[in-house]
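[agent] plan:
  1. take the single chain provided in the ticket
  2. run structure prediction with default settings
  3. attach structure tokens to the ticket
  4. add a short note for the reviewer (M.T.)
[agent] executing step 1
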Amino acid sequence: MNLPLSLYIHIPWCIKKCPYCDFNSHALKDELPEKQYIQQLIRDLETQLEFVQNRPIHSIFIGGGTPSLFSPAAYAHLLAELKKYLTINDDTEITLEANPGTTEADRFSGYFDAGINRLSIGVQSFQDNQLKILGRIHESDQAKKAVTQAQQAGFKRINIDLMFGLPNQTIDDALFDLQSAMDLSTSHLSWYQLTLEPNTYFHRFPPVLPSDDARFEIQQAGIAFLNQHGFKQYEISAYSKSDPCRHNLNYWKFGDYLGIGAGAHAKLTDLKTMGITRRHSVKNPKQYLSSNAENIGVTKKVLHDDLPLEFMMNTLRLYQPIEIGLFKARTGLPFSIVEKQIKKAISEGLMKMDARYFHVTNKGHLFLNEVLEIFL
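[agent] step 2 finished; step 3 output follows
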């Protein structure tokens, strides 16, 4: 099995920090330094080129922050610069995260012409009262208009981000959001639970969320609704009608990825030794822009003893069988290292395995933390 190599690009700025957001994002206070930032992205990439090892780029994901603050011209320039160092084919999946409050028809057309072929639009809810609570800068009508404009610009692959378990949310509220996405003819959804993460405004001043039982009922009703509309759950929070996100699948199958941009993370394998390195770039945008090659990123070798858990933390998120051979192909370790733990999980009804595949059961997905504890 080959070891795919993806590229993650982080754009750290946004118009306003959302109260639930724990990503490396910073409210934009000055002029956007597009040109300077792109130059630094390339310097960042140059420090990781030894890990490319003649592999083409499997997928590119531009996340944030709010990447749609950058102009189409900036992305056309960035992709042209990347192609000087990397093999990026015509069919490489290139995703851009977009905020409905920072986009317009001409901008979508420009992104498409620049070479971006997939969008992930951060809607979160199609109800204005919830959008206000979530601190979003757009309204429901803007979100619907953004998806339609993206489709008219030529985008055939569009993901809509939605949340559930919102303050005072009912099952009907959640199904309204999902039906609104269906009405826009999307073929991919990220539908995930609002959680109160440390170092966020909501963690310091928590809103009143539905009870655990109510959130479970909302989730089950939503999954049934999506199944009825032909959406298959292929990962904990990802649903697709026909074309799962290739970039996310590479993450969850423990593939490699370069990471450039303020706070970007990378997972990189030396194909000769199968040694794995984790790397992260400087988080603060100002420090990132002023860093040189020696201090732009920090690397750390992953110990062999940590690899089984790391592999399982990724692959067991998937709602699909995992080939037994993938463990050795991605870690360099024999499958026998984890066979005892898998058999323990099987005995507890949390996993299943046959001659070629292993996977988490429905019960296992409900108690995934307990499954992972077996591999500690």
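[agent] step 4 note for reviewer: Residues 350 and 365 are 8 Å apart (CA to CA).
[agent] ticket updated
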